[in-house]
Amino acid sequence: MPLPNAYQQYANNKIMTSSPAELTLMLYEGAIKFINIALGAIEEGDVQKAHTHILKAEHIIDYLRQTLDMKYAVAQDFENIYSYLSQRLIEANLKKDPEILQEVNTHLHSVRDTWKEVMRKNGITWRT
Questions:
Q1: Residue 127: left (phi > 0), alpha (psi -120 to 50), or beta?
Q2: For the purposes of burial, counting CB atoms within 10 Å of the CB of 119, is it exposed (0-12), middle (13-18) or buried (19 or more)?
Q3: Residue 68 structural domain
Q4: Is 108 in contact with 85 (CB distance < 8 Å)?
Q5: 8-63: per-residue pLDDT in tens?
Q6: Total structural domains in the chain?
Q7: Is residue 38 in a domain?
Q8: Which of 103, 27, 22 is nearest to 65 (CA)?
Q9: Is the pTM of the predicted complex or chain greater than 0.85?
């Protein structure tokens, strides 16, 4: 079992040494990944797997909302986006609706790509 342990150590090290901007990017990537897994599970008819991964995406969005610093005006814009995405994820989970998940996925890709652009313009590099 040395290989999984090595990977876990690498992943932990990556998180511990990342900047706040990189961590935010990782959260967006994680939410996108979990939605993609949920979409595949719905296609396969695996309702429990879809539910589990939609919840994981919901938890990421909730965390992003909780960590907003509302002293900045832009935080309210993010609050509105995250609130909407959260509501849509709940609805998608209740209905196991792939169209709603695709919509959320599209929005998350847009937010993630915008975040990458902000990072780039501010000279923040990220590891893939």
A1: beta
A2: middle
A3: 20-121
A4: yes
A5: 676 666 666 789 999 999 999 999 999 999 999 999 999 999 999 999 999 999 99
A6: 1
A7: yes
A8: 27
A9: yes
Extract the tokens encoding 117: 């652009």
Angle, helices 20-44/98-121, rounded to nearest 10 degrees: 160
Angle among Cα 59, 65, 70 to the nearest 5 degrees reads 165
Which pair of structure tokens corresponds to residue 23? 């961590």
Residue 105, domain member (yes or no): yes
Residues 24, 97: Cα–Cα separation, whole Å: 27
Residue 127 is assigned to a structural domain of this protein:
no
Residue 115 lies in a domain: yes
101: domain CATH number? Answer: 1.20.120.340
